[in-house]
Design a protein that fits this description.
By secondary structure, this protein is an alpha+beta fold. The protein folds into two domains: 4-81, Beta Barrel (OB fold (Dihydrolipoamide Acetyltransferase, E2P)), CATH 2.40.50.140; 145-319, no CATH class. The chain is built from ten helices and eight strands. It has helices at 87-103, 111-126, 132-147, 186-195, 205-216, 234-237, 247-255, 264-271, 278-300, 307-319, and strands at residues 4-17, 21-28, 32-38, 57-63, 69-78, 174-177, 182-184, 243-245. Strands 1-2-3-5-4 form a five-stranded mixed β-barrel. A three-stranded antiparallel beta sheet has the order 7-6-8. A hairpin with a 4-residue loop joins strand 6 (174-177) and strand 7. Helix 1 (87-103) runs parallel beside helix 3, helix 1 runs antiparallel to helix 10 and helix 2 runs antiparallel to helix 3. The relative contact order is 0.11.
């Protein structure tokens, strides 16, 4: 006789199975990742139909089977219905779900990860369309914090020197090194690059940064300094200097450590730029999201496939 167990879980992945079933990958508080079959959930008027949709939070009763567990009962606690009504929000939610799949464990409680994901899904659901990318980027950073691999953004991760953004100098830049673990002064990066045997020598860290960014920059991308492609390129990620960050980019990156993001008007005021606009903020968020994406791919050693959809969605929105 099969044993049963109770769990509270959020659906991260769904695959059709057989003629009328779904195979769900569920992040549960009590047991981490669980794969279970929702029997008959694809049938019309099935009581498990809506409960097996993505990002629905259910109180589950699951029967343990020989090869696959089976959901015998599900009571919905939250459903986040507005995520599926907006393309940006849906794609951002899939991005976060993919990151959680990369870091979640099976057969172990995942209370913190479950609560963090559910909280940021709720924030995405409530956010206006103009703030979706900002909330997504904040959530990605917080997931990296929970995984214990978040980049250092307030100090040089080599010298431990404080790094306040300098808005008075438009040419001011700080380095972002993925292997080093975050922000690094350019002088330190020059020393790091000098000690490595690169395939091609560059006179300065700035020259190396430009070469790396140009190698990764997709055609038709927005004119953000050192924008990188969503394509997973471990060889480029190991180049030491991933990109140079301007003062506004570093400011936004440092705000990601906060529990709540500041309003766009606050960011514009902190940038101290008379010509700054909402479009400027949008471009900065795109740049920071792409930097964190490359960072997450490097440390999880897996590509984030949903990222290509993020690029397509926001590029379409900005060019419209």
């Amino acid at each position: 006789m099969s044993r049963t167990y109770k769990a509270t879980g959020i659906n991260l992945k769904s695959m059709p199975m057989g003629e009328s079933d779904r195979l769900l990958t569920i992040l549960t508080r009590e047991f981490g990742l669980v794969r279970a079959v929702a029997m008959g959930s694809r049938k019309h008027n099935s009581r498990l139909g809506g409960r097996s949709e993505l990002f629905v939070v259910n109180e589950l009763l699951i029967a343990k089977g020989r090869s696959l567990d089976k959901i015998t009962q599900a009571d919905t606690l939250e459903s986040h219905p507005r995520l599926g009504q907006d393309l940006k929000k849906l794609i951002a939610s899939q991005y976060l779900a993919e990151l959680c799949l990369h870091q979640a464990l099976s057969d172990q409680p995942q209370e913190d990860l479950f609560c963090l994901l559910n909280e940021h899904l709720a924030r995405l659901e409530r956010s206006p369309a103009s703030q979706v990318l900002a909330h997504l980027t904040h959530a990605v950073f917080q997931l990296l914090v929970l995984a214990g691999v978040a980049p250092q953004v307030h100090l040089c991760c080599v010298t431990r020197e404080a790094l306040p953004p300098d808005f008075g100098d438009r040419t001011w830049r700080i380095g972002f090194s993925i292997p080093a673990g975050g922000t690094v002064t350019l002088s330190t990066l020059e020393q790091l690059l000098a000690t490595q045997p690169p395939r091609r020598q560059y006179r300065t860290a700035e020259a190396a940064a430009v070469a790396v960014s140009q190698a990764e920059e997709p055609r038709g991308s927005l004119p953000v300094a050192n924008t990188t492609s969503s394509t997973y390129k471990p060889s480029l990620a190991k180049a030491g200097l991933h990109r140079r960050l301007s003062a506004p980019e570093l400011m936004i990156l440092q705000h990601l450590t906060d529990a709540e993001l500041p309003e766009p008007t606050v960011l514009l005021a902190q940038m101290q730029a008379e010509t700054a606009s909402q479009r400027t903020i949008d471009q900065l968020w795109q740049s920071i999201e792409q930097a964190l994406r490359a960072y997450a791919q490097y440390y999880f050693d897996r590509p984030i496939r949903s990222a290509t959809l993020i690029d397509a969605c926001f590029a379409t929105a900005d060019s419209a």
